[in-house]
User: Fold this.
Amino acid sequence: MDLTYTPEEERFRAELRAWLEANPPGPEPEPLDDWVSYGKGWQRKLYEAGWCGIAWPATYGGRGASLIQQIIFQEEMARAKAPMLINLAGLTMGGPVLIAHGTEAQKRRHLASILAAEEIWCQGFSEPNAGSDLAALATKAVRDGDHFVVTGQKVWTSFARYADWCMLLVRTDPAAPKHKGITFLLVDMHAPGVTVRPLRQINGDEDFNELFFDEVRVPRANVVGEIDQGWDIAITCLMHERQTLTFSRQLQSRVALEEMIAFASRHDRGGRPASEDPLVRQLIAAALVDSTAMQYTAYRNLTRAIRGGVPGPEGSVEKLFWSEMYQRQLDTALEIAGPHGLLLKGSPHAVTDGQWPHLFLYSRGRTIAAGTSEVQRNIIAERMLGLPRGR
Ligand SMILES: Cc1cc2nc3c(=O)[nH]c(=O)nc-3n(C[C@H](O)[C@H](O)[C@H](O)COP(=O)(O)OP(=O)(O)OC[C@H]3O[C@@H](n4cnc5c(N)ncnc54)[C@H](O)[C@@H]3O)c2cc1C
Assistant:
């Protein structure tokens, strides 16, 4: 692991930090509809200043940034408390997949609009009977001349009701073994026959959705890669999702931890600052150990990625550890705040801005999204430790 930065990398950081200071992201509005407009505006601003999709080649609107520059970018975004980018599915999965496997026409059609957040993307992989066992997916696409006709259902599709395009996994050859005969399609979410139904979550948000496809006609030109060969593309997509997203999230968790420590110093618990309570001190120390272990694991994987290229199964270690650490961190936050921690956003007595109970509830899903903890452990056991396959 080499954590020193070259003068050029330091210049990159200074330029970005100066831009963020001149263009602060500002507070994130609510409800979700307002946040979506704010998120599109913020991403567009980044794009126009050349700070969006920095890893993408310059010919496709990026700046061909090195991995280290991408990390600096994530660090500075976390430092500036910038929001999650609205077109995350497009930026972290759709774009990279098109750059690697798309046709020139697909790249020209989609890449710039992903970067500018003009068209929002979603990931239509999971189905009611295909989550961990994704290859069991049953949404079918039948060839009809220059089109496919798509029928079926997807579920848990984040941001689908705001999305313009969906990365859809469909079964094109029902007779083939289950990992074969799957095709990766780009589907226009405004096409006739697409229905989106929001699902309300435990924290009151509605960023999940069910998707229904009723004989939706999709041009053959919207196939990414080869027909019946979509499984490998889906796996590349999931590896990008695990590793890229986890890296930025662990940085955000570190910033949140620092805020939690500051809160403990000013919050009264039994007549003295919570930070003087031995229980709180132990919990904070444990959270710092978690966070530091996570940070170095992320940097070690980064070093491996710099040497070896594409993300590999080590992304599972990061995803597993970060998602469980994040839940522990929010348990600690609520313990420190005591009864105040239960007050939701908008309550005049919410000492924590009401963020923590909201995030606490949201964090439950983190050990499920992008592959459950059990699935990550299976990947680590089989692909990293070489243990025999489970049955
Ligand atoms: C916040 C969030 C966002 C999401 N966003 C999207 C999205 O945008 N697009 C999308 O397509 N999907 C999305 N998902 C869905 C997610 O990918 C699935 O929920 C996940 O893959 C698990 O599938 P499942 O819910 O069907 O659970 P199941 O696969 O039915 O699992 C149920 C339980 O069985 C366990 N289990 C299953 N198989 C094994 C095994 N082989 N060994 C040991 N234990 C096992 C699981 O760990 C789990 O505890 C999202 C989920 C969440 C929580």
The two ends are 37 Å apart (CA to CA). The pocket of flavin-adenine dinucleotide is lined by residues 122-126, 131-132, 156-158, 365, 368-369, 371-372, 374-375, 378 (CB under 6 Å). The mean pLDDT is 91.
